[in-house]
Amino acid sequence: MWRADTRRAGDIIHGIHHFVRKSEGVRCAVNLNEIIREVLRLLHSDLLGRGTAIETQLAPSLPSVDANAVQLQQVLLISPDEFAGRNAGYTRG
């Protein structure tokens, strides 16, 4: 079990390092599918700890968009926690 925890911690640190290393002021062609995959990699251990599963259906031929990748990642990382905090009684029906 400690090996799995160590691996998850290493994955989180690697993901955060990759996330922070990108320049925050640069707009460029961004693959939204890759942004989503990267955010899910960062959230993986947290989701496992909560017993939460995420199912994705990403469009394989989605065109790139001109955007700031770091800002998009930040929105995706922050939004679920804010949503959960504001909607404590929310259940999907």
What does this structure look like?
It is a single chain. This protein has helices at 2-21, 32-50, 69-86, and strands at 28-30, 65-67. The protein has 93 residues and is mainly α. It has one domain (2-86). It has a two-stranded antiparallel sheet. The longest helix is centred in the N-terminal third of the chain and has 20 residues, at 2-21. The mean pLDDT is 76.
Summary, kept brief:
The protein is mostly helical. Helices cover 61% and strands 6% of the residues.
How are the SSEs placed, and which strands pair?
Layout (H helix, E strand, L loop, with lengths): L1 H20 L6 E3 L1 H19 L14 E3 L1 H18 L7
Antiparallel strand pairs: 1-2
Helix pairs in contact: 1-2, 2-3
Order of helices and strands: HEHEH
Tally of contiguous helical segments: 3
The shape, in one word, is: globular
Strand order of the largest sheet: 1-2
Number of strands: 2
What number of domains?
Answer: 1
Largest sheet: 2 strands, antiparallel
Measure the end-to-end span.
35 Å
Which consecutive residue ranges, at least 5 long each, have pLDDT under 50? none
Name the quaternary structure.
Answer: single chain
Radius of gyration: 15 Å
Q: Beta fraction of the residues?
A: 5-15%
What structural category characterises the helix and strand content?
Answer: mainly alpha
The overall pLDDT average reads 76
* Helical residue percent band: 55-70%
